Known about the structure:
three-stranded antiparallel sheet, disordered N terminus, seven-stranded antiparallel sheet
Amino acid sequence: MRRRVLRVGVASLACAALAGCGAQEPVGQSGHLCERTGSTLAELPLPADLEAVFDPVVAKGMATMDAVGLTVAVQCAESPVYVKGYGSADLASGAPATANTVYELGSISKQFVAAEIMKLAQEERLSLDDTIGMYLPWLPADWQPITLRQLLSHTGGVPDHYAIFRVNPETPFDWTRDYSAAELAKVFLALDDGLIAPPGTTFFYSTTGYAMLTAVIEQLTGERFAAAMSRTFFEPLGLKHTAFCSATLPDRAVGYNIGPHGPIQGPEVPASFWSGGGGICSTAGDLARWERDLVGGKAVGREAFQAMSSRAALNDGTAVSYGLGLQLGELGQSEAIFHEGGTASFSSWLAYYPDRDLIVSVLSNTVGDNPTGIRDLVVDLTTVAVGR
């Protein structure tokens, strides 16, 4: 199917679609799920009726989300990843969503950016307390003192220019051009170069800040972001179905919005518009494996992951519910390290529960009217997985 490319603003980047559910055979039939027994985690044989348990939970979640299709991945400790697709990856062709279906990750991409910054810090090519002005000296004077740590934790006072695009579609962005991260940041500044607040005084979620971090990565590595990610993470970690969304990826899902008469194919936004703040595509299984490598220290090391998953603080010492590229807080009844994501026509969620060493990822090719639907599905799957 030829996909429609967005050439106007992002004001229409919303809403979802409803379709039937076509199940695929799960991957990892011999895998394990976990539950806590006493003070230890036990790996239990995968129950024969797991699909019978999961399927109604997913069906309910899909109805809540108005999801055309989605794929779920679950893993406990070092057990094989259980993956299953539901619904449709492409209504026109009839292709079902499977374990191998590729989705846009949206803001889950931010943890890859953060991990790369941590790698560069380990190599002593930068410090998290360096100012952004050291790397992007063309920024306005009041932006230059913002530290890389503050950009990673959304405490730099940087506005979110993606919100400006949604409000004002008549912007100087050329939808046919492949922007570098620095070029994208300059486009943003042409729209609005004012800060929300002085650096370090408030938490304000900003994808713009991650575009600037991506510009630092491109400057220090001498590579475009896609190449740097492939060299540092995708290839070494065996993430074979993960790439920058501008790449040609097999089994890629078509994204959908809701229309007055049902699902309509959503607009395709150039990957360079999202930059590192949301430009990566992957499968639910690859995403679960990435999370395992991140948590286990294989991706960036345990000390770096500890820094990423610790609450950041404002100048006055107030802790925020965000680390470095990771959201932190209660998800359902348990503390979790997580991140959500969304693009024009895709929604995603990745969660890690430290007390159970449990990973749950859910990727969908639909943006629904109910923005909490995918979160609630993750919570319900977690409840089933741990037998609570």
